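Q: For a teaching session next week I want to show students how multiple molecules come together into a single three-dimensional assembly. I've collected the sequence lines for a complex. Could you give me the predicted structure tokens for the whole thing so I can convert them for display?
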Amino acid sequence: MSMQTPTPGPKPASTPTSESAYLQCESCAVFAIHTVSYAGRLLVSTRCTACGAVVAGDAAEARARYMRDLEHRLQSKPRRMLRRAVDDPKGFVATLPAKVAAQPGKLAREWRTLLSATRARGSRPTPPTE
Amino acid sequence: MRQAAKGGPRGPATARRGHAAILLAGGRSAQQREGPDVSLLPLAGRRLVSRALSSLTEQTGVSHVVVAVHDSDRDAIAAILDREVPGHSYELVRAQLSSQQTVLVGVEALAATIDDDGYDLVVVHDAALPLVSPHLVRSVIAAASRWGAAVPYLGLDDFVWIDRMGAALRFSGNDDRVQVQSPQAFRADELLHAYRRSATEGFVAGTATEAVERYCGRRVRGVPGDTRNVEIHAPRDLFAAEGLLAALHYVVA
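A: Of course. Below is the structure for the complete assembly, covering every listed component.
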């Protein structure tokens, strides 16, 4: 699974590959920093930095969820683009070519993250510690 | 409805003025002193803190939100709120080591306006519950406007239990215990009074409800809660919340 060091300061507009936050680990029960991985805006796995426990959904289900989410993103894209164009017409026009060109690479990275995260965990979520 | 205790605020709550909210978005990181708070995490493309703030202010009468954050999250949360929920009136205050101290700091930030009768109610919410619906916020506010203080609750058989594969199970039992949720709404002057008295007397209140009942003689009323209003404190909660959002087509009404 690809992990990144959390970037301090303001977050970028798009969802990055991974984030970190305090969560209670379901394996070691400790409140610890967890690395949370995303494919696009879809959550794919979490990893406890204290014990290394990984929680990820079923691999096939994760891929299906990603496709549904991608479909939703595509459907809502025109509305979101229109909103950005209205809010900041010059900025929208100036950044549009670069953003369009970046889309294939972005989708490829999301797919790689999805595959590596679900492969790292296997096909079943980690059972919680009662 | 009980009258306010001697020395405390009196009089009926009205809906003539606007309301304020205190959004707790730094409790865990304030205690741990390192690492970002869970409220900074994205959930279906939006951060938990902006989801919570958006619901608190969506046609609820809440005109201003005090967001309590850890120092290290301050710039990130300001940037998130400005980008994801632009145009909302908010201010950032420093989260403390306990939620009681944090709410006190939050309500003190509102004190000048409260003293000028600027707010009817103060709604207290935790950003770790990002799927709170505006409908639930309005229900709590309506009850608090009438009774002075209100909290949402779930009966034990309302709990959503998740099995090891993440599927929802339904518990059925005969038990009078309830789970109290957030957001909770209180008369602004009473909340300020209760927290100041708690601080002065060194009383450790587990919840705002406890402080208001103790120092204002107010019986806090319950309104039906919402099983979708899940708290994010473990990885599984994140997956569950994302699944709920997808099932709702990403709109929590």
